[in-house]
UniProtKB/TrEMBL annotation:
<feature type="modified residue" description="N6-(pyridoxal phosphate)lysine">
    <location>
        <position position="206"/>
    </location>
</feature>
<dbReference type="Pfam" id="PF01053">
    <property type="entry name" value="Cys_Met_Meta_PP"/>
</dbReference>
<dbReference type="GO" id="GO:0071268">
    <property type="term" value="P:homocysteine biosynthetic process"/>
</dbReference>
<dbReference type="InterPro" id="IPR015421">
    <property type="entry name" value="PyrdxlP-dep_Trfase_major"/>
</dbReference>
<dbReference type="GO" id="GO:0005737">
    <property type="term" value="C:cytoplasm"/>
</dbReference>
<protein>
    <recommendedName>
        <fullName>O-succinylhomoserine sulfhydrylase</fullName>
        <ecNumber>2.5.1.-</ecNumber>
    </recommendedName>
</protein>
<dbReference type="InterPro" id="IPR000277">
    <property type="entry name" value="Cys/Met-Metab_PyrdxlP-dep_enz"/>
</dbReference>
<dbReference type="InterPro" id="IPR015422">
    <property type="entry name" value="PyrdxlP-dep_Trfase_small"/>
</dbReference>
<dbReference type="InterPro" id="IPR006234">
    <property type="entry name" value="O-succ-hSer_sulfhydrylase"/>
</dbReference>
<dbReference type="GO" id="GO:0071266">
    <property type="term" value="P:'de novo' L-methionine biosynthetic process"/>
</dbReference>
<keyword id="KW-0663">Pyridoxal phosphate</keyword>
<keyword id="KW-0486">Methionine biosynthesis</keyword>
<dbReference type="GO" id="GO:0016846">
    <property type="term" value="F:carbon-sulfur lyase activity"/>
</dbReference>
<comment type="pathway">
    <text>Amino-acid biosynthesis; L-methionine biosynthesis via de novo pathway; L-homocysteine from O-succinyl-L-homoserine: step 1/1.</text>
</comment>
<keyword id="KW-0028">Amino-acid biosynthesis</keyword>
<dbReference type="GO" id="GO:0019346">
    <property type="term" value="P:transsulfuration"/>
</dbReference>
<dbReference type="GO" id="GO:0016765">
    <property type="term" value="F:transferase activity, transferring alkyl or aryl (other than methyl) groups"/>
</dbReference>
Length: 390
C-alpha cells in the first residue's frame, strides 16, 4: 500500500525515465518489443522475467495507467481495456463458467444489463436482480451456483446509494466474488476495496478522462482474479491502446482537483433545483433530503457530479425542458468538462414500460444532469431559463 496521499500518487506514479530524462511521461507507440537473444525471448515468453512482449499483453503506458489506478483504489493488480464495457465483459467472461449465476442490483448501466439479459444466457449464465430498497432479499437470491455479487453506487441515473460494507459482508459470508462498478464515484470519492470489494471496474471514459476525448476501462483488485482476467484478455484482445492510456494517466494527475470542483458545482445545482417550484424532486447524494444521505456521507468523500431531478409534468415536460437548454449539451456521455443533460424515460430507458422504469427510480419527468466545470452561475442560469418555459 502506498503511503502517499491520493493527489501525490495520481501525479508521481510514473514509469521509469528513459535516457532522455523526460519530466512528463513519454508515449510508447509500439506494437511489439525486441529481445536481446533467443534465450531472452524464451525466458520472456515463459514469464520468467517481467517485461513487455507485445502491446496486446502489456505496454509501458498501459502499465503506468494500471499501476496508478491500483494505487488510487488500494488494489493489488489490474488490467486496462479499450472501453468500460470491455472491462465489464472481460471480467465476467474470465471468471465465470457455463452454468454459473450472478446476483446483481437492478439499477445498473444499460449495456451491462443487456450483457446479463441477452448475451451471458447464451452460456447458460443467469442473473437474479435485487432492487435498491430490497437489500434484505439478497440472501434469498443466492443459489449454490452463484459466483458473483455485482452493483454500482451511486446508481445511474437515479443516483441511489447502496451500502457497500453491508453487501460486502453478505458476499463474504456466501463466498461470492464481490464486484463494484465505481464509475460514478471515481477512486477519488470512494474506494470499494475498503468495504470488501474483490474487484473494482471503471469506465475511464467518464470522469477519469474527464474531458470527453477517449474511451477506456480498467478492472483492479485481487491479484489471483486479475491473473485470470489478464490471461483471458491477452488472448482475446480487448486491450487499451497506449495512446489512450497515456491520455488517461495524464488525466488522473488532475482527477482530485477536477472532481472537487465537479462536486462543488453539482451540490450548488442540486440546491438550486430543490428550491425551484417547477421541480418535483431532486436526488443528489449529499443533499440532506436524499434517502441515503447518511450512508453517502459514510462511504463517499463528496456527492459526485450527477444530479437527478423530476420536472413537474411528466414525459412531455422532461423533453420540453431539454429542448429549452441553451448551453448544456444533450449527449450520451457523462463526466465531461461540459455539462450534459439527458432524459432517460425517452432515451436510454425508453424500452422499459412505466412500471419497470419506476422500479429503477426513473419517473417520466426525470432529468439527469452531469454537472461540468463551466462556471456554476452559468450552469444554473441555463437551467433557470429552461425551467421558466416548461
Ligand atoms: C459508461 C459506463 C460504462 C461503460 O463504459 P464505456 O467506456 O462507455 O464502455 C459502464 N458502467 C457505467 C456506470 C458507465 O457509466
Amino acid at each position: 500500500m502506498s503511503k502517499n496521499k491520493f493527489e501525490t500518487d495520481a501525479i508521481r506514479t510514473q514509469m521509469e525515465r528513459s535516457e532522455f530524462l523526460e519530466h512528463s511521461t513519454p508515449l510508447h507507440l509500439t506494437s511489439s518489443f525486441i529481445f536481446e537473444d533467443a534465450e531472452d525471448m524464451r525466458a520472456s515468453f515463459a514469464e520468467e522475467k517481467q517485461r513487455n512482449i507485445y502491446s496486446r499483453f502489456t505496454n509501458p503506458n498501459t502499465s503506468e495507467f494500471i499501476d496508478k489506478m491500483c494505487k488510487l483504489e488500494g488494489a493489488e493488480s489490474g488490467y486496462a481495456f479499450a472501453t468500460g464495457m470491455a472491462a465489464v465483459f472481460s471480467t465476467f467472461a474470465a471468471l465465470l463458467n457455463a452454468g454459473d449465476h450472478i446476483v446483481s442490483a437492478r439499477s445498473i448501466f444499460g449495456s451491462t444489463h443487456t450483457l446479463f439479459t441477452k448475451f451471458l444466457p447464451k452460456w447458460n449464465i443467469e442473473t437474479s436482480y435485487f432492487k435498491i430498497d430490497e437489500v434484505e432479499k439478497i440472501e434469498s437470491l443466492i443459489q449454490p451456483n452463484t459466483k458473483i455479487l455485482y452493483l454500482e453506487s451511486p446508481t445511474n441515473p437515479a443516483v441511489d446509494i447502496l451500502d457497500l460494507e453491508l453487501l460486502g459482508h453478505i458476499a463474504k459470508k456466501h463466498n461470492l466474488i464481490y464486484i463494484i462498478d465505481n464509475c460514478f464515484a471515481t477512486p477519488y470519492l470512494q474506494n470499494p476495496i475498503k468495504f470488501g470489494a474483490d474487484l473494482v471496474i471503471h469506465s475511464a471514459t467518464k470522469l477519469i478522462d474527464g474531458q470527453g476525448r477517449v474511451l477506456g476501462g480498467v478492472t483492479v483488485g485481487r491479484a489471483d482474479l486479475i491473473r485470470e482476467i489478464y490471461l483471458f484478455s491477452r488472448n482475446t484482445g480487448p486491450a487499451l491502446s497506449p495512446f489512450n492510456a497515456w491520455i488517461l494517466s495524464k488525466s488522473l494527475e488532475t482527477l482530485g482537483v477536477r472532481v472537487d470542483r465537479h462536486c462543488e458545482n453539482a451540490l450548488k445545482v442540486a440546491e438550486f433545483l430543490e428550491a425551484h417550484d417547477k421541480v418535483a424532486l431532486v436526488k443528489y447524494p449529499f443533499l440532506k433530503s436524499h434517502p441515503q444521505y447518511e450512508l453517502a456521507k459514510k462511504q463517499m468523500k463528496h456527492g459526485g457530479n450527477v444530479v437527478a431531478f423530476e420536472v413537474k409534468g411528466g414525459i412531455e415536460a422532461g423533453k420540453h425542458f431539454l429542448n429549452q437548454l441553451k448551453m448544456l449539451s444533450l449527449s450520451a456521455n457523462l463526466g465531461d468538462t461540459r455539462s450534459i443533460a439527458t432524459h432517460p424515460a425517452s432515451t436510454t430507458h425508453s424500452k422499459l414500460n412505466e412500471i419497470e422504469r419506476l422500479g429503477v427510480g426513473i419517473a417520466d419527468g426525470l432529468v439527469r444532469i452531469s454537472v461540468g466545470l463551466e462556471h456554476v452561475d452559468d450552469i444554473i442560469a441555463d437551467l433557470k431559463q429552461a425551467l421558466e418555459i416548461v
